[in-house]
Design brief:
Radius of gyration: 19 Å
Largest sheet: 5 strands, mixed
Structural class: alpha+beta
Distance between the termini: 67 Å
Strand content: 15-25%
Strand order of the largest sheet: 1-4-5-6-7
Shape: globular
Number of domains: 1
Number of strands: 7
């Protein structure tokens, strides 16, 4: 009787996990980290002095893949989202001691993008972090958009002398 109960429960849970993965377009593989339904422990990089929490980390073909969900209807990946994903790739490499070759961005309009973590994006991430640290250290913050909504919600708003709104 107990065996039948646990077998049935196991099948129900397996189906639930499969449907959840399909609903959220989560890549195939084992979920090893998630920060969507309850807060997860942040990952930290000693090399770059950054921390972050990807939405998911999937273990697939003996490698880790960060998966990040974003709102909006985009037909191409937004640059800031690509750099955020690149930072997660770096964090995973340092925290899991494993090479990360790509990450996945998923937009709520069902578009998903496999973003390579190649030498070009690695260089761009490092360069962007240097520019950000310079801006914070000097207080020299420059406007990089013309969007009043972004301006209103910007974390650098108090330091910016070129506010739109």
């Amino acid at each position: 009787m107990f065996s039948l109960f646990f077998l049935t429960l196991s099948k129900i849970l397996k189906r639930h996990v499969r449907k959840t993965k399909e609903k959220h377009k989560i890549q195939q593989g084992k979920i090893t980290y998630k920060d969507l339904d309850k807060p997860a422990k942040p990952l930290f990089s000693k090399k770059y002095r950054i921390s972050g929490k990807p939405d998911y980390i999937i273990r697939k073909d003996n490698h880790y893949v960060p998966v990040e969900f974003k709102s909006g209807n985009h037909s191409y990946p937004m640059k800031n989202h690509v750099l955020q994903l690149a930072a997660y790739c770096q964090l995973i490499e340092e925290n899991y001691n494993d090479f990360v070759s790509f990450g996945v961005l998923i937009y709520n309009n069902s578009m998903d993008f496999k973003i390579p973590f190649d030498p070009k994006i690695r260089f761009e991430l490092e360069n962007t972090l240097k520019k950000m640290r310079y801006s914070l250290r000097t207080g020299n913050i420059s406007l990089n958009h013309n969007d009043p909504n972004r301006c209103k919600a910007c974390s650098m708003r108090k330091n910016c002398n070129k506010k739109i709104i």
